[in-house]
Amino acid sequence: MKATLDELLCSVELLEGDTAILDVINKHIFDQTQAQKSAFFVADLGAIVWQQIRWKTHMDQVRPFYDVKCNSSAVVVEILAALGTGFVCSSKHELELIKNFGVPAQDVILGGACKQLSLIKYAAKHGVQLLVCDNEAEMRKIARCHPNAKLLLQVYTAGCCEHDETAMPFGCTLKDCRHLLECAKELGLTVTGVKFHIPSCCAEPEAFTHAVSDARCVFDMGAELGYAMSILDVGGGFDGVEAQLEKVNRVLKPMLDAYFPQSTGVSVIAEPGAYYVSAAFSLAVSVISKKMATQNGNNHAQDTLSGIDEPEFTYCLNDGVFGSFAYKLLEESVPVPSLLKETSAEEPLFSSSLWGSSNDGLDQVLESCLIPELSVGDWLVFNHVGANSLRVMGEPTPLVHYIISAQDWYEIQNYGVILDTALKNFCLVPCFQKPSLSESAISTPA
Ligand SMILES: *Cc1c(COP(=O)(O)O)cnc(C)c1O
C-alpha cells in the first residue's frame, strides 16, 4: 500500500496564547454532531520534539532508532525523520511507511525475532541491511534471501523482569551466541553488532550493567572469529520520563566508557518507542451507557450496620480494549482518566469500572477508579496514551487531531529544529482560537 500525498498531507493546528489541549478537545467534541460522537486523539507534536531535545541533552552519545511498532502515525514518523532519528521496523507496512519519508536504508533496522521470508526479501530489495537475529533458523533464512545482511545478535538479558512471567525471553544466551557466531561464519553472513532490550518494567538499572558486559563478551567472541563488530544496540524501554532517562544514563554511560570507549569505534544506538510518543497523545472517549449497582449487593444487614450503601458504576465507552486500549493486553496499565465536564470539589466519588462496548469479558478498560458520577454523553480524557494505542485490531483507529503550540513552534527553533522547512507533508492551519463562553453557548446544537 503506497500512501498518496493527499493521505500524507496532514493539517496541524497551531495553538496561540494560552489555548490548552483541553480547549482543543472541547472544540472537537463540539464540532461532532450528536450522532457521531466518536472517540478521537489529540497529538501534541511539540511534545515529540521536546523528547528529542531531552534525548540530545542526556544521551547524545547514543543515537536513537525509533521503534515504529509503538505508534506508526505518518506524522510521528515524518517528524522523527526530520529530527534525524533512525527507525526500527518489523513489518512491510512499516518499511513502506518510512520509505515514503525518504529515510535512507542505512538508518533502518529490521527488528523482530521472527521474520517471514517475504519480509526479509523486501528488506534485501530495498537495501535495508541491519537485521536483528537471535536464532539459527532465522539466520539460515537470512543467509538464503539476504546474504548481504548485517546482523545484530539479540542477546537475552538475564535477571531482567524475572518477576514478570509474561515477559518473552527474546534473545539468545551467551552460550548460544558462540554457536550463532560460528553458524554465521559458516553461512558467510556478517555479524555487525549486538542488541539487548531491557523493558521499562525492569526498574533495576543494574540490568544495563549486566547487559553491557555481556555484549562486550559477544564482541570479544566475534573478534576471535574474525568479526569486527561496530554497533551496540541498547534497545528500548525508556518510558519517556526525563528522570528515568537520566537514571539509565547514569548507569549506562560509565559502562559504555569502560567497555566500549570511543577509541573502539563502536557506534552505540538505542530503540526507544514509547519514549517519543507516550506523552504526546491524549484520547477523548465518551460514555455510551451506564449501570449502577450497590457495593454490597443484597447484603442488607451489612449495609444497615455500616450505614452506607455506596453505589458502584459500570460505564460503557465508545472505545475499548479491541481498539485504542489494546495496550492493556500487553499488560500495560491504563491511566486514570480525567473528566471533561467541570465538577465541584465536594462532588462525591464513586468506585467505577470502565468497559468497551464489545460485551467481551476481556474488554475491561479500567477495573476500578474513583470518579464522580458520569452521565451518558460525558467525555473522559486519557493522557499519556501515545504508545501502542493506534494499532488496528478490527476496529478502525480513531481520528487524530494534530496540534502544536505557537510557543513550542518558536522555542524549538532555538534548538535548531525548524519544522516548517523539514516537514513537507504538513500544512499548518491558522491558529485555533479559544472560543469565548458566550459564543459556544449560543451555537450549541439543541
Ligand atoms: C517494542 C520494542 C522496543 C521499543 O520498546 P519501548 O518500550 O517502546 O521503548 C525495543 N526493542 C524491542 C525488541 C521491542 O520489542
Automatic annotation (TrEMBL):
| Residue ranges of every copy of the Orn/DAP/Arg decarboxylase 2 N-terminal domain listed in the record | 46-278
Which biological process terms from the Gene Ontology are attached to this UniProt entry?
negative regulation of protein catabolic process; positive regulation of polyamine transmembrane transport; putrescine biosynthetic process from arginine, via ornithine
For this protein, the record's SUPFAM superfamilies field holds: Alanine racemase C-terminal domain-like, PLP-binding barrel
**Please, which domain of life does this record's source organism belong to?**
Eukaryota
Q: Which family does it belong to?
A: Belongs to the Orn/Lys/Arg decarboxylase class-II family.
Cited function: Catalyzes the first and rate-limiting step of polyamine biosynthesis that converts ornithine into putrescine, which is the precursor for the polyamines, spermidine and spermine. Polyamines are essential for cell proliferation and are implicated in cellular processes, ranging from DNA replication to apoptosis.
Record-given protein name: Orn/DAP/Arg decarboxylase 2 N-terminal domain-containing protein
Which species is the source of this protein?
A: Hemibagrus wyckioides
